[in-house]
Amino acid sequence: MALAVEVRGLKKRFDELAAVDGVDIQTREGEYLVLLGPSGCGKTTLLRTIAGLEEPTEGDVLIGGNVVNGLPPRARQVAMVFQSYALYPHKTVMQNIAFPLKAERTPKEERERRTRWAAELLGIEPLLARKPRQLSGGERQRVALARALVREPSVFLLDEPLSNLDAKLRATARDELKQFQERVGTTTIYVTHDQAEAMGLGDRIAVMYRGKVRQIGPPREVYSDPADTFVATFLGSPPMNLVRRGDHLLGFRPESFLPAELVDGDGNNVTVKFEVARIEYLSGDRHVYGAINGIGEETRVISRLPSTVTTPLEGGDVHEFAVHERDLRFFDAESGEQTAPQPLRT
């Protein structure tokens, strides 16, 4: 059974350092929530506090509506998968998966039934007699998931479980993880610094920075409508362009900044002269770096052009580029928080 997780006013300090600084989050039952942020932002500490591996300095952790502060991890109906997978090298895959059941003194027949069920669900039944050293990275990851699954937890907590895999395997494992979570329907909280993982896996994303949640919402909403300049520039590759204009900042995504002839000609476009500095060719896209002058101060910006855009551009060219007003976001220059749209024409 899936249970909702809630943290209320959660703080965790290590001496004078506030690793988690007043976080409020509530998941839905069966939701896939991703905690996203740079190294040191507090996401792993938050996950460990939910798991019961750390005690909060202030605030409460609730699972299924019940406060679990002070309860050990085993009593919280959660299972955690770490970045290292933490498999026992001298045990077989079957023994590794069955270990938590043996520790709970589950009868042998029930232990074997649940172990084989989890192994079959994750497609690793042929590997049960092997040792971890005989497995690939992706196989070890699935063994760690199976070991968590046999406990039949109400909540999965995953701490960067794909970070040890190469890029190709990560993409495959990401798809497997999403399908697996949809099959079992367990509430899942997943920690990563990788925005592609966050966008691909999460029903919602909570973006963290300096111990705080800066924004939480569906991936598309967080990407297209960032709450502040940190979220705007952390999400996206390349990140959102920010141009100072008087006492506010004007933001627009590189894929919205295109040659003027390709942008909606309905009169609601902002058109500028874009001086091209250099061009990168990446995965079928062109990343065009340069400077503009016409919205505010001269600023370096980036345009991301898909392969379908054939406009010839070279370093040193000056070309009219435009962005539609609906794709502009406005931020307070001091606080960085998103504000109401400001007049562009005076």
Could you characterize what this model shows?
By secondary structure, the protein is an alpha+beta fold. It has 2 domains: 5-224, P-loop containing nucleotide triphosphate hydrolases (Rossmann fold); 240-334, OB fold (Dihydrolipoamide Acetyltransferase, E2P). The chain is 24% helix and 33% strand. It has 8 helices and 19 strands. It has helices at residues 43-51, 93-103, 108-121, 137-149, 167-184, 195-201, 219-224, 229-234, and strands at residues 5-14, 17-26, 32-36, 58-63, 66-67, 78-81, 155-159, 187-192, 204-209, 212-217, 241-245, 248-252, 258-259, 269-282, 285-293, 299-305, 318-324, 329-332, 338-339. The strands form 4 sheets. The chain has a 6-stranded mixed β-sheet, with helices on both faces. A 5-stranded antiparallel β-sheet has the order 13-17-14-15-16, with no helix packed on it. A hairpin with a 2-residue loop joins β1 (5-14) and β2 (17-26). The longest helix is centred in the middle third of the chain and has 18 residues, at 167-184.
Helical stretch tally: 8
CATH homologous group name of the largest domain: P-loop containing nucleotide triphosphate hydrolases
Secondary-structure element order, as H and E?
EEEHEEEHHHEHEHEEHHEEEEEEEEE
Can you tell me the CATH architecture of the largest domain?
3-Layer(aba) Sandwich
Q: The biggest beta sheet, please?
A: 6 strands, mixed
The poorly predicted ranges are: none
Instruction: Report the β-strand fraction as a percent range.
Output: 25-35%
Judged by helices, strands and strand pairing, the structural class is: alpha+beta
Task: State the CATH topology of the largest domain.
Answer: Rossmann fold
Radius of gyration: 24 Å
| Helicity, as a percent range | 10-25%
Query: What is the number of beta strands?
Result: 19
Q: How far apart are the termini? A: 58 Å
Overall average pLDDT: 90
CATH class of the largest domain: Alpha Beta
Order of strands, widest sheet: 6-7-8-3-9-10
Shape: elongated
Number of domains as seen in the coordinates: 2
